Amino acid sequence: MELNALDLSRLQFAFTVSFHIIFPAMSIGLASFIAVLEGAWLKTGKLHYKVLCIYWSKVFAVGFGMGVVSGVVMAYQFGTNWARFSAFAGPVTGPLLTYEVMTAFFLEAGFLGVMLFGWEKVGRSAHFGATVLVAIGTLISTFWILASNSWMQTPQGFVVSDGHVVPVDWLKIIFNPSFPYRLAHMSIAAFIVAALLVAGTGGWHLLKGRRDPMVKTMYSMALWLLLILGPVQILVGDQHGLNTRKYQPAKIAAIEGLWETEKGGTSLNLVGLPDMNDEVTKYAIKIPHLGSVILTHTWNGEIKGLKEFPKEDRPNSTIIFWTFRLMAGLGMLMVLLALIGLLLRRGGRIFENRLFQRFSVVMGPAGFVALVAGWITTEVGRQPFVVYGYLRTAQAVSPLTSQSASISLMIFVLVYCVVFGTGIFYILKLLAAGPSVDALPIFPPGLRGTTGGGRRALGAID
Amino acid sequence: MDITVIWAAIIALGVFMYVVLDGFDLGVGILFPFFPDSSERDRMMHTLAPIWDGNETWLVLGGAALFAAFPVVYSIALSALYLPIMLMLVCLIFRGVSFEIRGKARRTKNLWSLAFMFGSAGATFMQGVILASYLQGIPVTNREFSGDAFFWITPFSLLTGLGLMATYALLGVCWLLMKVDGDLQRRLHKLVTPLTIVLLGFIAAVSIWTPLSDAAIARRWFESGLLHRLLPIPVLVVLTAALMIGVARMRGDRMPFILALVLVALGYIGLLVSIWPYAIPGSLNLWDAAAPRPSQLFALVGAVIIIPIILVYTTAGYWVFRGKVAQDAVYH
To answer: Quick check: A382 and A315 in contact, CB under 8 A?
Structure first.
């Protein structure tokens, strides 16, 4: 199969951005978690909080570094592979990206040094301030990038002149119709990613027999967060779906594998295989009216089918029908995990049920999987447009040879797998080792039964 | 005041910050072959660990600001310089990740030292190539790149790649002089003079080659009547280099870095003189390539307020980690 520069560039963008997003998602959740842990230590003086804070900072550091270098790739990839998009939409997306760099990236980078290495260089409050600012930086970053990405999905606030966009109203540009929902959905997703990671790690160590305050505290905190955020995320997702139906009906049709506009209520395709050529969803198992209920909150609400849109305007339903269901299915499992956790808590057995601990371990990576599945859904669902309704992806690519595009794609796949694979391996190693009292620079009285104090290097994991 | 010119100035300043800050980071990596001892390499990397990320962020700002204020330049230049940029990005990935992993690796530590070294050297070389290709002019038709995929491979660009490696190596040495002591510092001092001479050689070569190969640049330097104002630049370069060598003999701690900064600044000014008033030398001038006024304004308001704040807390961060890095310092 001969792939041209357009297809290769699309593959490359999809590959690099999917890899990239897992790191900031982890960073956003972990940064706030670490800030809470440090705050709890400062407030209560309980050393297990400090141990957890230092432990998760190590995990955070590796992930953050990979997020930075994969992020630089994204910042330049708009120009290298999507020059026509950059020339067309740059007047809007350029300033938004610049604000992200100025208000978020510099903030994170500026205080990361103190957060990771400055424990003994600055006072307690100053260090805590640095941790909080790093966490805030990650959240500010989410704001700007979702503003830019959402504008590509539901653009407003501009005119087109001379072959490019000209901003008219920046508030309308930033606070475009889909932005609030996507910002909420992604921010919550980032916290869920981290919560599952922490719960999974906690479960792993509980299974190994550890019952120290560190493991129990992190397990408990993560499950509480999941209990609150899981259901909220389902509500946010629901609202996001309603918004998408209003502004991107073709995307909803493709997500649902809906071909015909059904009268008198739309059924839900629970499973099935949408066929883009035959214009039908094969092997569908339908539940009558459920489509209307979910997507219009009425019994008979109408949802446009894919056949109402010209063939060249239809997103790939075969892909996003399933990525959506993967994300939503995992979401329900997350809520299930949290609810069972609540039940076990009531029974006082939250740290003793091994089946539940195994469930938490299996769900550890679920956040990442759901995250990427959701992003594939929304971005593939935006096709064939890169700026929805204004610029098609096919018109947006750089004047590149397929040779250049092949070279870069091959290099990225190889390098990302080797380098980030190694990084992920070291994160897994850290997770398997678990929080250790040995990692504290000063011997903490009472947290260990044995002797052997004195200053220990922070490199205890090696 | 012309907003377009203001934005050009901001971008020029941002790129200068990048060159200086990531210059010494990358320079340390380039120096690795001269310092094969693993614990010395640990020490050198420890001087960078708390600050390298902020330094690299200036590269992202440069790209983003270009995207915001001159989107046509961003789109033309980046798609034209596709392969060198991709190679640079990949080298930066190796360099960045090795900060974290080299400290944790046991059996593969040497591999990650190589990753740090080649990542730093490769990124630097590619940046030089990118700079030179940009200077020599990118083929543009209808506001799009219209050249071939390997137009950037020229003797001049390869020369500039090497020249930038020498520049960053010098910056790296001067940085390390401030941050280490003892035998390591003594051996670093020995590199200052040779590196300065090598750098002077490259500056001379580039300075002679550029006007020779580009008539427009030659005109600006020699015929525009500005020669008396521009002449101080090469004179200052020679003076600074001489000072550097003198200072190196005296074993100053901070002076070498300051002088290196002056050298880089002078070279950079020379570059800007050669580029002005082009956004894409030979094709588009700044005003041809400027973003619409609302984009420039929106981004400018933020830049004017936020960049000074960034400078303040960045300086504070450097100040927290001031002083020498001990022989056996352990970071996380």
So the answer is: yes
> For residue A323, what are the CA distances in angstroms to A59, A375, A376, A436, B74?
28, 9, 7, 38, 34
Contact B145 A113 (CB under 8 A): no
Q: How far is B85 from chain A (nearest CA, A)?
A: 8
**Contact at 8 Å (CB) between A394 and A224?**
no
Higher pLDDT, B268 or A438: B268
DSSP code of residue B326: P
Q: What is the pLDDT of residue A140?
A: 98
Q: What is the 3-state secondary structure (H, E, C) of A408-442?
A: HHHHHHHHHHHHHHHHHHHHHHHHHHCCCHHHCCC
Selected residues 229-268 of chain B with any CB under 8 Å from a CB in chain A: none
Percentage above 90 pLDDT, chain A: 93
Task: For residue B329, name the pLDDT band (cuts at 50, 70, 90).
Answer: low
Contact yes or no for A94 and B64 at CB 8 A: yes
Task: Name the token pair of A218.
Answer: 């992190």
B67, B303, B306 member nearest A94 (Cβ) = B67
Tell me the torsion sign for CA atoms B16, B17, B20, B24. Answer: negative
> Cis ω on the peptide bond leading into residue B139 (within 30° of 0)?
no
Q: Say if A329 is an interface residue toward chain B (CB within 8 Å).
A: no
Closest CA to B30 of B83, B91, B84: B91
CB-CB neighbours of A198 under 10 Å? 26
ipTM of the complex: 0.94
CB atoms within 10 A of CB B320: 19
What pLDDT shows up at residue B24? 97
Which one of A9, A69, A77, A145 makes the best mutation probe of the B interface by having the most chain B beta carbons within 10 Å? A69
Q: Which of B78, B116, B325 is the mutation pick for testing A, counting most A CBs within 10 A?
A: B78
Whether A426 and B101 lie within 8 Å, measured CB to CB: yes
pLDDT band at A441 (very low <50, low <70, confident <90, very high): low
How do residues B213-224 score in pLDDT, each as one tens digit? 777 777 767 766
| Separation CA A82–CA A13 (nearest Å) | 10
Q: Residue window 66-95, chain B: list those with CB within 8 Å of chain A.
A: 66-69, 71-72, 74-79, 82-83, 85-87, 89-90, 92-94
pTM of model > 0.90: yes
A270 in helix, strand or coil?
strand
Structure tokens at B26: 């990358």
Question: For residue B196, what are the CA distances in angstroms to A65, A214, B237?
Answer: 33, 54, 11
Please list, in sequence order, all residues whose beta carbon lies within 8 angstroms of the beta carbon of residue A251, skipping any fewer than 6 positions away.
A244, A315, A320, A378, A381, A382
pLDDT surpasses 50 at A444: no
Are the C-beta atoms of A86 and A9 separated by less than 8 Å?
no
C-alpha B220/C-alpha B199 separation (Å) is 24
> What is the Cα–Cα distance from B286 to B293, expressed in whole angstroms?
13
**Residue numbers in A near B145 (CB within 8 A):** 83, 398-399
Among the ranges given (A457-461, B36-40, B135-139), the one the predictor scored with the smallest mean pLDDT:
A457-461
